[in-house]
Amino acid sequence: MLKVSELLGKTLLSLSDAQNVGYVGAVWFDAKLTRAKTAEIFSDDDQRPESAYVEMRQMQCDGDAAVIRSQAAVLPQNLASAVSPCPINCQSYNQSGKALGKVRDVLLEDNAVAGIVCESKTFTPAELLSLSRDMCIFNDTGAPVKLPKARFHRTAQKKAAKPMPAAIPPIAAPAERKARPIEDETNRVATPTQPQSVTVTRAPGDPVKDYRFLLGKPVHTPVMRGERVLIPAGTQVTEEVIELARRENKLVQLALRAF
Predict the structure, then answer these.
(1) Of the candidates 126, 180, 183, 249, which lies 20 to 30 Å from 103 by C-alpha distance?
(2) pTM, whole model, 2 decimals?
(3) Residue 119 dihedral angles phi and psi, to the nearest 5°
(4) Backbone angles phi, psi at 239, to 5 degrees
(5) Cα–Cα distance measured from residue 138 to residue 125, given in angstroms and rounded to the nearest whole number
(6) What would the pLDDT profile of 93-120 be if each residue is shown by its tens digit?
């Protein structure tokens, strides 16, 4: 039986060339949390990408270090079938809304999820009713519970899809009414007259990294920016510490130093 909490932070070695590939920073699961699919590997080596992905079936994880046969197992497409982030530190509730505490660990048997350990009880994947990035809902009744399918504002979508009457054509704004920037005479910077919207996109298959599994762990070596100490050794990781590391672009370094 392998505990995911014990796997996180392990060194990953490549046997064929005796190389340190990085550290196991996160584990990704299938949509129903029944199987661990992919390990996300962090590295602070400038010659390697910050994140790489290895299929769990390609790894041996029961020693002091995790091992793969060769670095050919490290491929970006290994994340394709892994969609659920590690649930450790997620809040958990039963079907009636009773708090069950946070998820403390995930137990693996040959990469199949054997148990999801909460503060009050250990559940099987069959007892998991639903999950999201921040929460797990479990069935603790012992009887089948069927949830309705999620609905996403179908009425609003239908209204939005309804075409406008032909008698009321859309009105285009005249060209001369287009907002023009106002130039600040003090610093000569052109300032938009209206707030500007920004859309952030990411490449398909590239997950938004989730570092909640670090919560409560001690930082063993300081996280630095140049000569400045951002996060001292001995600091316990909190949401504020993770946010600081995010702002300073030091999340990977924090993950490597907190275990």
Answers:
(1) 249
(2) 0.62
(3) -65, -30
(4) -60, -35
(5) 9
(6) 999 999 999 999 999 999 999 999 999 8
